[in-house]
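Quick one: sequence plus guanosine-5'-triphosphate SMILES, need structure tokens.
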Amino acid sequence: MKEYLLVVLALLGVLILGGLSLVVPRLRRRPEPPTPKTEVEARPEEELKAPPVEAPPSEVSTGILVEPPPVIEAPPAPPIEVPEPTAGRLVRLRSRLSRSQNVFGKGLLGLLSRDHLDEDTWEEIEDSLITADVGIDATREIVDRLRERTRVLGTRSVGELRALLAAELVNALDPTLDRSLNADPKVGMPAVLLVVGVNGAGKTTTCGKIARVLIADGHTVLLGAADTFRAAAADQLETWGGRVGAETVRGPEAADPASVAFDAVKRGIDTSVDTVLVDTAGRLQNKVGLMDELGKVKRVVEKHGPIDETLLVLDATTGQNGLEQARVFTEVVNVTGVVLTKLDGTAKGGIVIAVQRKLGIPVKLVGLGEGPDDLAPFDPAQFVDALLGTEPLARGA
Ligand SMILES: Nc1nc2c(ncn2[C@@H]2O[C@H](COP(=O)(O)OP(=O)(O)OP(=O)(O)O)[C@@H](O)[C@H]2O)c(=O)[nH]1
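Reply:
Sure thing.
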């Protein structure tokens, strides 16, 4: 009996120990926080079910032709612009000369209208002209002639004085000079225009604007990007050309400018355009190597035939300093015309007179703003009318 009791107790002990080993680990383990459901998991199952995909009916099984996927067309090329006509541009842009108008129209006319034109007044007139960059020699001539004519005239009305001043200024601008652009082709050969000047004068912009001037006047034009020094210049020129449908010939970066210019003229001959306009890199007149390079561009282009026009682009805001630069250019290439840019940004509009006197070369075009058609053929009478604020038809000089 005792033995039987011991066996029962031993069995009970085993059962109790076994039960504890099952319960204790459960009690020790801390419950894990529930992991937040992702947005997708949070959505009801129904929602997650993809809509049923219908298989396209097969042509074989249905006998119906399946349309091919639509062809995505390239965006249409921007329309070719029609540049403004060149006639009347200077009249349209006359207000751009407002800073110079203050000197000539208001300042000079005010002085001339004084009751007594004494020595001090004449000195003031002289100073105004010199400040407006007319240049000393031209100023002396203009003032001497004005003194003489006002003395002869005796009493003077404002209208008469305005007419006298206008006549003297037009005379100083030499209205007899030929200012037309030589841009007409010869038999089998386009006219070739070379555009030169110092850095930042506005050559590339002016090339683009000249292309528009020529196209407005009925020419076909090809542009040559021989400014291989400034990486963006060729892109800039190409954009200008693209707007008016003119092709641009360019070379690889840092290519020999003479070879790009040569290729451009060759392409112009092959495609029978009327005019090839060659843009060159800006260069300082005192850099001998760069000036020699310009001479080479000219010589290489001339293997095709003579250059018809070499335009020197001058920044009007550089005033008298620009004149010395200009002189050196005329020694290296045969400059036939001047383009005076940025006249809209200066009160020194008299620089037109000084440039022509110093270089003996006509100003053919003037830049009066950054807009694509803000380049005008230069006309002395219209320019003086604009400077003096005179109505074009009212000027009786
Ligand atoms: N206000 C005004 N700005 C002008 C005129 N002509 C050119 N410019 C500006 O002058 C700046 C220089 O023009 P660019 O054509 O790049 O000059 P660039 O001579 O080719 O320059 P480089 O190749 O560096 O020698 C540009 O911001 C033009 O918009 C103008 O008549 N009036």
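Residues 19-59, 393-397 have pLDDT under 50 and may be disordered. Residues 197, 199-205, 227, 230, 233, 281-282, 341-342, 344-345, 367-370 surround guanosine-5'-triphosphate (CB under 6 Å).
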